[in-house]
Amino acid sequence: MKLTVNGAVHELDIEPEMPLLWVLRDELNIKGPKFGCGIAMCGACTVHVDGEPVRSCSLAIGDVEGEVTTIDAIASDDTLHAVQEAWIKEQVPQCGYCQSGQIMSAVALLRDVPNPTDEDIDDAMSGNLCRCGTYPRIRAAIKSAAAMKVGA
Amino acid sequence: MSEQKTKPKRSRLRKIARRTFLIGTGAIAGGLAVGYYFYQREHPNPLLADLDDGEVSFNHYVTVAPDNTITIIVPRAEMGQGVSTTLAALVAEELDVGLHAINIEHGPASPAYLNQAMMIESAPFPTFDRSFSAEGMRGVMEVVSKYLALQVTSGSSATIDAFEKMRYAGAATREVLKQAAAEKFGVPQSTLATENATVTDPASGQSATYGELAASAVGKAPPADMELRGRSEWKLLGKAQPRTDIRKKVTGMPIFGVDVDLPEMLYATVKMNPRLGGTVNSIDAAEAEKMKGVVKVVPIESQTGNGFGVIANNSWRAFQAAEAVKADWGSAPYPADTDAITAKLKEALNGGEVSSLREAGDVTTTFADAPSDNLVEAEYQVPYLAHACMEPMNATAWFRDGKLDVWAPNQAPTILQDICASTAGIDGTDVAIHTTFLGGGFGRRGEVDFAIYATKLAMAADGKPIKVTWAREEDTTHDTYRPGAIGRYRAVLDDAGHPKALHATVAAPSIMASVLGRTYPSLPAGGPDKTIIEGAYDQPYEIEHYRIDAAKADLAIPVGFWRSVGNSFNPFMHESFLDEIAAKSGKDPLALRLELAKPWPTATGVLQKVADMAHWGEPIPDGRAQGVAFALSFGTWVAQIVQVKDEDGSIRIEKVWCAADPGEVLDPGIFKAQMMSGIVFGLSSAVGQEITFADGMVEQSNFHDYDAIRMNQCPDIEVEILENAAHMGGAGEPGTPPSIPALANAVFALTANRVRKLPLSNEVDFV
Description:
The structure holds two protein chains of two kinds. Chain A is an alpha+beta fold.
């Protein structure tokens, strides 16, 4: 089985029903996506498959069709992604555990909707749980990232 | 605010330390003869054992390497509350190093990193009680804290505990480096200046980095009369600092317990009896052990639970195999369902055996003499709750050559060291605890179960390291829950509608007895437990006849510290009841509180402030209503107003205003974030969280049936800080307690429905 993650191709001999999350974390040692619930209810494991956000804990590796991108590869060299910069500007994270998933959901949102409304943000982000309650700053950071891109 | 103001003046009643005394609640009996030894002893610097070549450590908190790499030890769990920023800033402020030019590490488990403030504030007295007896007990607790030397992150106490000692660590290091520089430059020390980890002599133009001076500063003694810098001189403290861990957290770095990776590491999970504390009748692992990647199934018996672990070569394979094990679980040591558990709470409530921590006037006579028209009575109930940290419980352990290493996101490293040593049958000095970042804590990670299981599985792993990750279902069904509780409140109003008597009895199981039973089963854990009534007995309200009674319920369901502990439910009851009094007497709920809190200007200050912020009492648009609540917890005075809105019959929590007074604030940005965090945590519980039992097992299992507020439900939150309190208060927990009654009171204002049982969503709909 072939799997492309963050631009690298991996040959895997693995049971097709293993969720993508555990292939990434335990087989390929890619630790950016986090394990939160295992049933696609919290979003901590969010990655992109061909640019679309998916919950990797509930996607069997045999069903992955496309290239996988994780939080580990959205910055280029030392330059952070605009969304990561916005997260720093607004000082979003507290414990930080859900933030890999939050950022991956926000990156996909901003690519599809460059100037999201509050309703767009609610729709795109409500699958990502945060127990520290960083939502108001996540909302601010998404708007801030949108403004940065417009300004660029 | 001067330092004088925050430095507690405690009478040192060491003489009475020999008697039996209360640790918060659970009593520990015993002669403290050995305690005096520990009290007097300076703990050796634990950093000396593990220095790099040429690296120097001047005290428990600072190391300096020859290349001028400065490392500051922050020996408290970073779980999002920002300790790795604020505590590092305490040292950096005096040491004159940039907060972002240094390494910050948690460091080893050591009694040198004991948390005294937490123990001192566990004395059963309200924050504002500075009487001889209250201060005396705080003095005793200070002695006890040194005796027990617990390194814990708990009780919103990290900053209070560190405020002086970590600044002194910075100042002492700076002074010895200056002594070395004075010798090197051949100038008097008084002419030297320090900045950016460098000592300079402006007159001669000479300079040397701390790294260049460190070796020659070893052995020098800092001056005995060292003075800490005053607030007006602070460059870092008192201002919002960028979090030092933020880049790691926006790039997905492997900083959490679940991310630990070691050579030849095995992966495991556990499945313990879901009838908590029950035994195991039998386990059939034949099918599971045949599954791909499974190494073995290991039975586990322990003080925290009985069940089994599955060792495999991948976490998911371990999860799958655990499901395939057939287990016959023994029965639960508590009533099997929620109704029977509630009946036990009621039995305690009606049992008559109570302990009181607040008694003013003559409650009994006042109620006996009161005309029934002047009575207000209400009964409130709250459910058991799970912590639901985003990062499921986990720990990694490696047992080889008689030594044990444990990596765990945890809030109590010295306790883990102790418990893991006894689990492995080795000496504590052969156990190293490595504290990772925590993906949420909320009190759950002060427990020891995850580390016990990892230790037991590591001992069956043939010298290989093993990472033990719990499935979310295991985490939800094997928590140490916030206890359920029932409170009966009654008041007598005078003819003007003013409460002249208030009496409450609150029934709940003892958190302290449950925690001690799991952690140190050999210690006695009897006596009263202040957590049953904290948040009710210790509030700044003056009522002529006032009594708050605690009734301990006998229930063996594991219960533990859940963000704000007893304050997570008592203010819901007490503050809802004040609104019921206001409703009965036709008073404005805010005005009633201002009246009752009049002797405490810090309390009326935050109430008045939050009223101004929310434009309380002014007309608001149709379909909206506001509720107010106040709570003093962990030394911080907090008033909140919640505004709700009717959306087609569902309630939206539209806005929360919060005014908080913790005395001195060291980082206003992080403090405000903590208030917001506490509010979202409290509202999440109030809206929809509930742990229920059937057949002895917890019925909820994952975020589909135990959820929290999400982006589309989260209100706009505005926080203002006041700094009038005489003593420094905490930040991590005090935001939670008032949010729950403020919401309940807002729901009443909007719907006229007084909901007395949480969660609110059992009676009203939320968006």
